[in-house]
Write the structure tokens for this entry.
Amino acid sequence: MASESNKRAKIRDSARDFTLLIAPARGLVSAEGGIEAIVAVLSKVQDRRMRGKVRYPLENVLAALIYISLKGELTSCCYAADFIRVQRDELVRIGLWPDGLPAPSHDTIRNVLMGLDSRSLRKNVVDRLRRMMERASESSGARGMRMISADGQEANGSGRRGSARNANIMDCHDVSGGACLLSVPIGDKQSEIKALQSMLRAMSLRNTLVTADALHCQRETCSIITRRRGKFMIKAKDNQPGLVKDIDERMSRPGERIVRGSAYGYDYEILFLKNPAGHDFEGTRAYVRAVSHKRDAHKGNSPTTHRLITSLGDAETILEGLDLMWEIEDGLHSFRDVHLRQDKVRLMDKRALESIATINNAVYALHRVATPLLGFDRMQLTRIKFKNDTSSTLALVGSLMKGKSFDALLKRAVEMRGA
């Protein structure tokens, strides 16, 4: 399985390319000035609060919240306020909190989260870290299709009042770039369909594969992706019974062009349509039926059959996409819930939920960038390091945000690779 993953050639993996290029040069990275650089980057996040009535600088509040999230403890405004109160001297010592400024109240934390410009935070932190990984990939000469995955995640602590239901957070995850592009709270599961369609209409999808679960097996969604020059691979289930029936019947029909085999823990069948033009789901070129054996070793688990439609036209890219399409669940969502405890967050305001998700997305990206700088091969190890040595590890990543530090590191890493 690991060897197959290392041989992927059709779908770009910027995080892997970043690791391979930067890890040998990690000894050149110094943490000096890293904390100041983090705070300086956060100072560029747009502050919507009324000027003249602001006591707590936004960059310092955000820096403290990121620090708390790195500890896996950003679960409520009350806890965040208590954490800053107890750890204020330490936060001052490392440069994340101004000397002489008292700890904020939980109301202040809540107001910051409710009024935060999440798009500005994403642009200045998440996108900046993602771009580092992409530049390393480009400098490595890597090529391939970009892949993004969409999926919703329930915010378990958001529906506490009366009969209110938990909100869902719709995520659009850049699997190739190693960072979450967008997290938007929505009212319920069905709202995911329109939310994703709105996201896709605003994106450039050229040379991009979009993957999604069966909820998004919608004619309109396929049309949007196709007309924006993207490709799709989407699961088909009982919400499209006619499509599922057609997939199974045609897989058994004599004379169909079907590619069969085993790869990435799947036994697969790929049927390339003879006349794809005019298909109900615009752009569809192939059907996929795959039996997953990835969890066979787990007690009580049995092989799972997946059916998908795709606008991809070659088996190799289809198989790579099939292997990677669960990364949003097994990677991003698992990381946020297990390590950052996002499913324990007790907030009901949707804008505050979006702010927490965006902060956690920044922390996820910080882990992706920190892993090769620390000489690790797994994010789990980086997670332990961040939790137990938060300030120095954060400073190490922050140092790459200082001036042209990353440009210099990238240039030196390319030289070392060519030597």
